[in-house]
UniProtKB/TrEMBL annotation:
Gene3D superfamilies: NADH Oxidase. Keywords: Oxidoreductase. PANTHER family: NAD(P)H NITROREDUCTASE YDGI-RELATED (PTHR43673), NADH DEHYDROGENASE_NAD(P)H NITROREDUCTASE XCC3605-RELATED (PTHR43673:SF10). SUPFAM superfamilies: FMN-dependent nitroreductase-like. It comes from Pseudobowmanella zhangzhouensis. This is Nitroreductase family protein.
Length: 194
C-alpha cells in the first residue's frame, strides 16, 4: 500500500503513543495535477461509508469531479481557493440530508456525522498516498444550483480538493513558509476531566 512521504513533525508535539496517521495528516495548498483513478476515489468513499452516524442514518453525500467536470467544480470555489485548487486531481463537496429517512424529523447531528465521514475519507486518502485539503471557501449558491439541491432538505457542508504534493523547491519563499503542517493547541486547553 502507498504511504505519504514523511511530514516534518519538528513543529508538532504529539504524545509518543499517538498514531502517526493522525499527526501527519495536514492540508497542503501546493499540489501537482496527476490523474486519480476511480478505484482510489471509491476506496476513499468506502472508508467514509463505514463512519458512525446517529441512528446509522449516514446523512452524507459526496460530489466529486472527474476530468470532464473539473472546471465546473473549480468554479464553485471562492477565487482564493481556485488559485491553488486548479492544480489538484479532483474537487469535491459534501452535503448532509437534514431529515431522518426513518421518520422525516430534523437530524440535528447530520453535520457532525458528515465530519466523521470526512475524517475517514481523509485518512484513507493519506493511506493511498494522496493529500486532501478541506475548504469552507466555497460558493454555496453555485453548488445548490449546480446540483439542483433543495436547501431545506440538503445542507452544503464543505468543499475539498485531492492531489499529490507538489515540488515545494520550485515555490516562492512565502509559499514554502506556509506549506508546512501547523501546530495544535495543548490538550489542557480543550479537555475537562472530572
Amino acid at each position: 500500500m502507498n504511504t505519504l512521504p514523511a511530514v516534518d513533525l519538528s513543529k508538532r508535539d504529539p504524545l509518543s503513543d499517538t498514531d502517526p496517521r493522525f499527526v501527519q495528516r495536514w492540508s497542503p495548498r501546493y499540489f501537482q495535477p496527476v490523474p486519480i483513478s476511480d478505484h482510489e476515489i471509491n476506496v476513499m468513499l468506502d472508508a467514509a461509508r463505514w463512519s458512525p452516524s446517529c441512528y446509522n442514518e449516514q446523512p452524507w453525500h459526496f460530489y466529486i469531479s472527474d476530468e470532464r467536470s473539473f472546471a465546473r467544480y473549480l468554479d464553485m470555489l471562492v477565487e482564493g481557493n481556485q488559485a491553488w485548487a486548479k492544480h489538484t486531481s479532483a474537487i469535491g463537496f459534501i452535503t448532509a440530508r437534514q431529515q431522518f429517512s426513518r421518520n422525516g424529523k430534523p437530524n440535528g447531528f447530520a453535520a457532525f456525522d458528515c465530519g466523521a465521514a470526512w475524517m475517514a475519507f481523509c485518512l484513507q486518502a493519506n493511506q493511498l498516498g494522496w493529500y486532501v485539503h478541506g475548504m469552507g471557501g466555497i460558493e454555496t449558491d453555485k453548488i445548490i444550483d449546480g446540483f439542483g439541491l433543495d436547501p431545506d432538505a440538503e445542507q452544503v457542508i464543505m468543499g475539498f480538493a485531492i492531489g499529490k504534493l507538489g515540488d515545494l523547491s520550485s515555490a516562492d519563499a512565502d509559499t514554502r513558509e506556509k506549506e508546512t503542517p501547523n501546530q495544535r493547541h495543548p490538550l489542557a486547553t480543550m479537555v475537562t476531566r472530572g
